[in-house]
């Protein structure tokens, strides 16, 4: 039995030791926002946050994350409000077919969390270089991540001044 | 910045995409997200050899694996007359191998089990005895007498598939012979693969109780797939329901029917259970349709002042073990005859010979309207060689030869009637954006400092929107497309089309188009595609054909509705229909603009308050057979520098000015251009499916078949000119593929420009650093 | 693509891990970050019957330092060094950001990388340059092995079936010296293995004379290599352009690359030369600019 906390909710399922985390999330827990796009740990469509750190869930055994915290794309929206990254991807046409999008969002979320200082375009490009996209050419993804960073800052400013 | 979907008059505006809210929440419904009760999983056993006799297949081991439910081989399929299936190119292809295998990773057996893992375990437990046969890797060798005949099932005992030619051979040769300047270039476009991030897959769900097969499939062309499946399986077509759910990228990869699909259907028929088959990335790259693999030679004759006189093109096309190209029936080399490009060649001739080799079958139109990328790459590269030979600026050479605006509609020597264009204007915009004169100046200075800096231009013309029924069909089915619009009593609309988007944004752009025609907002129009039980018949989304064909159908269906609406409006306004005017969002009584009804007033009346004798309801369907193709075009400029130590190329700038006619949504168009440029960049710099002498695929996954990340990908600078298509209902041309068609030549021309002072006119793609370094070394430039 | 079935153990103490390993020996594989092992198992190129997941052993996840050496547990992940500048071992930071891609770096471990012994391993090259020692332990014995004696061949090390890499020790240069480093990697795209990787590190006394030098090479031999001949040309010299040139030439001679789709043998040798030169020049520039740098 593998027990995890996923998107703040405790869940468990019985799986074989060889079950990969991506399939545990998709098949056993029914959260299909996490996608699988390759078999060589190359594409990043399966990116989730494991204890807050973005990892490729196709290259981790489900059994190895026993008791850990996982966050997937389904956990981004809070109380009906889109995460600023989701909103920014929408506003800036940061997605087309949508298949790489959940992975991009999770990697970007970790980037914004772990980089309190200045972020420039090159930083964002480096940070998302483990996530492949075939549709967008990355331009609008980078734009969206930087826009979300601005929005988060503004929100923090508002909290501080209020 | 984008605008909200509720704005009126949405055509031409950057309306936010309607499909995004589900994708950003991870609530897209892609093929592998679908789980049906009792569903089983299928895996395929594939050949390790590129060419081998199958002596024996022992499946007992698989059946002993816990969870395995069934195994089938080619012999089993042969008993059902399903061992082979027709290809779109008029050839046939093995579903599961019988007798021998013809390429590495070819499908040999299918295993169904209770889990994905058990299905793979089962496949691994099958034992096959192979007797390796001599392998034919190169297409030129394939054509020699020494090469073994690969396709023993065919009547002709050689490896030649077809010869296709177009143009006036003698006149072209005569003109070349008298041309004062002649240049020849041998250009290869290697085998590449579309590799969308979502691989291909399907769920076949045959219900014995109803006799109906529901077939969920990653399909760019669900109606065509239904017809093909009906033909292959013998199931009546109305008992096949094809559903193409959200598709995670296609780029041509999801046009054909693949052996795995047929096996899944057979297994579902056999077991009466839903069967899911999702290919792995390795299976995707090694077996589903590749693209390109064209070995081209071109000769241009010109005057000394740079007027092109003649073009002759010879091509060997490597199709692999089966000719599974997805081309319109009459075009075994696709629309390669667009090879005269944007230039006024008085005469031209092109020929293509298709060849079998021991490689995976294809080739697909990868983000390209049927071999147009090959043609564009060739002409844009050879024009560059001509500019070098003449010592003429490549922009100037192009200008001298452009089809001028007043020459449209222009009949090319290879038979196409170009609809519209203003090539000079488009190029001028690109030159301005990049400050071409300043750039050349700075290039001179940097060259003096020993830097290797190059500027590459590509001014391509595409040919898309296949196509008019007099010329275009696939397996006999004319290449029209369709739209059905229903206006509900409250003025809200559902529209269904025969196309199937894979990221292009149809749910938004077609909503904008229809909303504009009906005076609504995009929010009022729901677009549905991909369900063959509800959508009208259409040929699907590829070859940049959706806007030219289904987009035309959508506009004309909406106009049919508006025409009926006008009658109803007249009734409501109590005036004659002739006295009703359309103001863009509603109908007004002529001369009395305060008397006005909008589409929702009319819609309600269509169900509640009709003029005497009028048929109730407000619906229309249009099957649009376009009168011609459309000819999007563009001017791309790349600036590169070469690291003299390593041979690495850095793209310093890239400007793309596209002309795709009327723009429905500039945000979506720009996004399409960004994506296509990135795929073109990958093709130019890092992608090639390579084989060793034994026919082993050396690039079977993303470790070796390289997809650019955000780090390598240049920052694209884009703009547009707008020269509407005169024959399309809204003047739109299609754009998805232009950047992939036009950009590879710009990159290579830039690299060649950097090296041209040292006598280099051609470098083969992909432009790996080592390849450039070998040149640097040879020319004494390596540091 | 899914691995063959296997038995899974997740020991929480070293003793437990050694015990399981001793029991299963050759049949077992150690799972650390899994970023090389799991892809191989998914492609069914590797099929261990037993997997021993050591991620729960906190002893192997620590970094300690004394006056002479830094010791990192084998479970330290690549990304740790991507975010940590160690002023006396700058090569760790310089290398980390080049490994695989950011997501893989969050999971993959330094010890796992060494034990895997991929000839293209970036850590292999860097830790050879740093003259690292590997701590290797089984239930019955433990030993320190110089990394240059650790690699035997492609994917082969001196590790016995019952042994686990538990720590890596890196000697520290004199505290009064200035240390500069670079990792230069030619890759076709992010996430690619090195076509050629070159790690260079030098410590300088206050006269600008090199006191310690390390040059490690990736993807130009059967295993990561140490360009010890080139290193010796640097010691006790200032990094003049002549010295740099000589060392670069020597390193290019010392490597042993194979021609393949990533480049010819000649090309790879040339890249070693180019990268050693560039790396040393950059380090020399760092030394010259050291006082301008903010503390």
What topology does this entry show?
The complex is a heterotrimer of chains A (162), B (783) and C (295).
Chain A: E1 2-6, E2 9-13, H1 21-28, E3 47-50, E4 53-56, E5 69-71, H2 84-91, H3 101-114, H4 121-127, H5 139-161
Parallel strand pairs in A: 1-5
Antiparallel strand pairs in A: 1-2, 3-4, 3-5
Chain B: H1 20-23, E1 40-46, E2 52-58, H2 60-64, E3 68-73, H3 74-79, E4 84-86, E5 92-94, E6 100-101, E7 107-113, H4 116-124, E8 127-132, H5 139-142, E9 160-167, H6 169-178, E10 181-192, E11 201-207, E12 212-217, H7 222-233, E13 240-243, H8 259-271, E14 275-278, H9 281-287, E15 290-302, E16 308-320, E17 347-356, E18 362-364, H10 372-390, H11 394-401, E19 410-411, E20 417-418, H12 423-434, H13 436-448, E21 452-461, E22 473-474, E23 477-478, E24 481-487, E25 493-497, H14 506-518, E26 525-529, H15 546-573, E27 580-582, E28 586-589, E29 592-598, H16 599-608, E30 619-624, E31 633-642, E32 649-659, H17 666-685, E33 716-720, H18 738-755, H19 769-778
Parallel strand pairs in B: 1-14, 12-13, 15-18, 16-17, 25-26, 32-33
Antiparallel strand pairs in B: 1-7, 2-6, 2-8, 3-7, 4-5, 9-17, 10-15, 11-12, 11-14, 15-16, 19-20, 21-31, 22-23, 24-25, 24-30, 27-28, 28-29, 31-32
Helix pairs in contact in B: 10-18, 12-13, 14-15, 15-16, 17-18
Chain C: E1 7-9, H1 14-24, E2 28-31, H2 37-42, E3 50-53, E4 63-65, E5 69-73, H3 78-82, H4 90-96, H5 102-105, H6 110-116, H7 122-129, E6 133-137, E7 142-146, H8 147-150, E8 151-153, E9 156-157, E10 164-171, E11 178-186, E12 196-204, E13 210-218, E14 225-226, H9 228-234, H10 241-254, H11 265-288
3D structure, described in words:
The complex is a heterotrimer of chains A (about 160), B (about 775) and C (about 300). With about 160 residues, chain A is of the alpha+beta class. Chain A has helices at about 20-30, 85-90, 100-115, 120-125, 140-160, and strands at about 1-5, 10-15, 45-50, 55, 70. In chain A, helix 2 (about 85-90) packs across helix 5 (about 140-160). The model of chain A has no long low-confidence stretch (mean pLDDT about 95). Chain B is of the alpha+beta class and about 775 residues long. Chain B folds into 3 domains: about 20-30 and about 480-625, 2-Layer Sandwich (Aldehyde Oxidoreductase, domain 4); about 135-380, Aldehyde Oxidoreductase, domain 4; about 420-465 and about 630-783, 2-Layer Sandwich (Aldehyde Oxidoreductase, domain 4), CATH 3.30.365. Chain B is about 30% helix and about 25% strand. Chain B is built from 19 helices and 33 strands. The two termini of chain B are about 45 Å apart. The model of chain B has no long low-confidence stretch (mean pLDDT about 95). Chain C is α+β, with helices and mostly antiparallel strands. Chain C has 3 domains: about 5-55, Uridine Diphospho-n-acetylenolpyruvylglucosamine Reductase, domain 2 (2-Layer Sandwich); about 60-115 and about 125-170, Uridine Diphospho-n-acetylenolpyruvylglucosamine Reductase, domain 3, CATH 3.30.465; about 180-290, CO dehydrogenase flavoprotein, C-terminal domain (Enolase-like, domain 1, 2-Layer Sandwich). Helix content of chain C is about 35%, strand content about 25%. Chain C has helices at about 15-25, 35-40, 80, 90-95, 100-105, 110-115, 120-130, 145-150, 230-235, 240-255, 265-290; strands spanning about 5-10, 30, 50-55, 65, 70-75, 135, 140-145, 150-155, 155, 165-170, 180-185, 195-205, 210-220, 225. In chain C, strands 4-5-10-6-7 form a 5-stranded antiparallel sheet. In chain C, a hairpin with a 3-residue loop joins strand 4 and strand 5 (about 70-75). The longest helix of chain C has 24 residues, at about 265-290. Chain C starts with 6 loop residues before the first strand and ends in a 7-residue tail after the last helix. The chains are: A alpha+beta (about 160), B alpha+beta (about 775), C alpha+beta (about 300). At the A-C interface, strand 4 of A face helix 2 and helix 5 of C.
């Amino acid at each position: 039995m593998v027990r995890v906390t996923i998107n703040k909710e405790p869940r468990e399922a019985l799986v074989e030791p060889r079950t990969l985390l991506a399939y545990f999330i998709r098949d056993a827990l029914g959260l299909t926002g996490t996608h699988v796009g390759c078999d060589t740990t190359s594409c990043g469509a399966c990116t989730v946050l494991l204890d807050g750190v973005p990892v490729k869930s196709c290259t981790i055994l489900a059994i190895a994350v026993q008791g850990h915290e996982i966050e997937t794309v389904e956990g981004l929206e809070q109380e009906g409000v889109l995460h600023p990254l989701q909103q920014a991807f929408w506003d800036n046409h940061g997605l087309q077919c949508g298949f790489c999008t959940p992975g991009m969002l999770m990697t970007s979320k970790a980037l914004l969390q772990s980089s309190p200082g200045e972020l420039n375009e090159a930083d964002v490009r480096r940070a998302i270089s483990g996530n492949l996209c075939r549709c967008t050419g990355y331009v609008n993804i980078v734009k969206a991540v930087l826009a979300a960073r601005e929005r988060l800052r503004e929100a923090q400013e508002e909290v501080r001044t209020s | 910045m984008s605008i909200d979907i509720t704005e009126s008059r949405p055509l031409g505006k950057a309306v936010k995409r309607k499909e995004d809210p589900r994708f950003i929440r991870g609530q897209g419904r892609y093929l592998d997200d679908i789980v049906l009760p009792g569903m089983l999983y299928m895996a395929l056993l594939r050949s390790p050899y590129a060419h081998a006799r199958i002596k024996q297949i022992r499946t007992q081991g698989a059946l002993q694996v816990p969870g395995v439910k069934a195994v089938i081989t080619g012999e089993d399929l042969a008993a059902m007359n399903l061992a082979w299936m027709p290809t779109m190119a008029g050839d046939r292809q093995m579903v599961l191998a019988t007798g021998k295998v013809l390429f590495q990773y070819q499908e040999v057996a299918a295993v169904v089990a209770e889990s994905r893992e058990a299905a793979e375990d089962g496949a691994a437990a099958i034992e096959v005895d192979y007797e390796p046969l001599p392998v034919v890797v190169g297409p030129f060798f394939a054509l020699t007498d020494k090469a073994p005949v690969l396709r023993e099932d065919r009547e002709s005992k050689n490896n030649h598939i077809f010869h296709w030619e177009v143009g006036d051979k003698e006149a072209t040769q005569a003109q070349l012979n008298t041309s004062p300047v002649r240049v020849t270039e041998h250009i290869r476009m290697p085998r590449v693969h579309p590799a969308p991030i979502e691989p291909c897959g399907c769920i076949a769900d045959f219900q014995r109780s109803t006799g109906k097969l529901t077939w969920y499939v990653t399909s760019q062309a669900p109606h065509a797939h239904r017809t093909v499946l009906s033909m292959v399986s013998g199931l009546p077509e109305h008992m096949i329901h094809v559903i193409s759910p959200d598709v995670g990228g296609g780029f041509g990869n999801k046009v054909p029917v693949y052996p795995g699909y047929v096996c899944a259907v057979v297994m579902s028929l056999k077991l009466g259970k839903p069967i899911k088959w999702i290919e792995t990335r390795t299976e995707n790259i090694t077996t589903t349709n590749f693209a390109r693999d064209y070995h081209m030679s071109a000769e241009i004759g010109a005057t000394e002042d740079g007027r092109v006189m003649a073009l002759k093109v010879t091509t060997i096309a490597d199709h692999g073990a089966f000719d599974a190209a997805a081309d319109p029936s009459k075009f075994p080399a696709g629309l390669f005859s667009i090879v005269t490009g944007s230039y006024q060649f008085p005469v031209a001739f092109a020929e293509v010979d298709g060849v079998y080799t021991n490689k995976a079958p294809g080739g697909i139109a990868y983000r390209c309207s049927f071999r147009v990328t090959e043609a564009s790459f060739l002409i844009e590269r050879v024009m560059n060689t001509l500019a070098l030979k003449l010592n003429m600026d490549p922009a100037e050479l192009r200008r001298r030869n452009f089809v001028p605006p007043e020459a449209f509609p222009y009949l090319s020597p290879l038979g196409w009637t170009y609809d519209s264009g203003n090539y000079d204007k488009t190029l001028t915009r690109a030159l301005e954006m990049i400050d071409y004169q300043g750039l050349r100046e700075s290039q001179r200075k940097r060259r003096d400092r020993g830097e290797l800096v190059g500027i590459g231009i590509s001014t391509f013309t595409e040919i898309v929107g296949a196509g008019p029924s007099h010329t275009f069909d696939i397996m006999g089915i004319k290449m029209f497309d369709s739209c059905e619009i229903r206006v509900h009593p409250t003025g809200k609309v559902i529209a269904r089309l025969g196309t199937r988007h894979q990221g292009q944004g149809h749910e938004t752009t077609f909503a904008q188009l229809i909303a504009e025609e009906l005076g609504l907002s995009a929010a009022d129009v729901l677009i549905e595609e991909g369900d063959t039980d509800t959508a009208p018949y259409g040929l699907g989304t590829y070859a940049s054909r959706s806007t030219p064909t289904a987009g035309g159908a959508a506009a004309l269906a909406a106009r049919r509705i508006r025409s009926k609406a006008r009658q109803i409006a007249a009734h409501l306004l109590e005036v004659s229909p002739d006295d009703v005017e359309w103001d863009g969002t509603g109908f007004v009584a002529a001369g009395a603009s305060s008397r006005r009804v909008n589409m929702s007033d009319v819609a309600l009346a269509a169900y509640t308050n009709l003029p005497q004798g009028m048929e109730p309801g407000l619906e229309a369907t249009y099957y649009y057979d376009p009168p011609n193709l459309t000819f999007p075009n563009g001017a791309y400029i790349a600036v590169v520098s070469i690291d003299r130590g390593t041979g690495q190329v850095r793209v310093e700038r890239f400007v793309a000015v596209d002309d795709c006619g009327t723009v429905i949504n500039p945000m979506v168009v720009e996004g399409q251009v960004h994506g296509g440029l990135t795929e073109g960049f990958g093709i130019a710099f890092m992608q090639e499916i390579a084989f060793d002498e034994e026919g082993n695929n050396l690039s079977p996954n993303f470790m070796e078949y390289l997809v650019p990340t955000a780090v390598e990908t240049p920052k694209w600078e884009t703009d547009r000119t707008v020269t509407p298509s005169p024959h399309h209902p809204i003047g739109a041309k299609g754009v998805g593929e232009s950047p992939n068609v036009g950009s590879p030549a710009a990159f290579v021309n830039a690299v060649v420009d950097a090296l041209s002072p040292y006598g280099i006119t051609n470098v083969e793609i992909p432009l790996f650093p080592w390849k450039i370094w070998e040149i640097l070394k040879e020319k004494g430039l390596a540091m | 693509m899914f691995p063959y079935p296997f038995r899974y153990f997740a020991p929480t103490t070293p003793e437990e891990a050694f015990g399981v390993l001793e029991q299963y020996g050759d049949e077992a594989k150690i799972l650390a970050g899994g970023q090389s092992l799991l892809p191989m198992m998914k492609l069914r190129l590797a099929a261990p019957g037993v997997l021993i997941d050591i991620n729960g052993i906190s002893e192997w996840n620590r970094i300690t330092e004394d006056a002479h050496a830094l010791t990192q547990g084998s479970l330290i992940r690549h990304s740790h060094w991507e975010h940590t500048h160690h002023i006396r071992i700058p090569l760790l930071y310089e290398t980390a950001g080049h490994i695989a891609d950011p997501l893989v770096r969050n999971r993959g471990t330094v010890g796992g990388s060494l034990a895997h012994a991929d000839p293209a391993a970036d850590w292999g090259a860097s830790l050879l340059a740093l003259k690292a020692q590997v701590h290797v332990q089984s239930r019955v014995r433990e030993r320190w092995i110089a990394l240059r004696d650790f690699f035997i061949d492609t994917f082969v090390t001196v590790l016995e079936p019952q042994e686990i890499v538990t720590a890596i020790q890196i000697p520290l240069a004199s505290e009064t010296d200035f240390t500069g480093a670079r990792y230069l990697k030619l890759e076709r795209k992010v996430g690619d293995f090195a076509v050629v990787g070159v790690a260079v590190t030098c410590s300088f006394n206050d006269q600008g004379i090199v006191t310690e030098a390390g040059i490690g090479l990736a993807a130009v031999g059967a295993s990561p290599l140490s360009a010890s001949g080139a290193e010796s040309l640097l010691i006790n010299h200032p990094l003049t352009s002549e010295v740099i040139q000589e060392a670069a030439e020597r390193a290019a001679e010392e490597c042993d690359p194979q021609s393949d789709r990533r480049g010819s043998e000649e090309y790879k040798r040339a890249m070693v030369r180019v990268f050693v030169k560039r790396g040393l020049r950059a380090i020399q520039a760092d030394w010259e600019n050291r006082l301008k740098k903010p503390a």
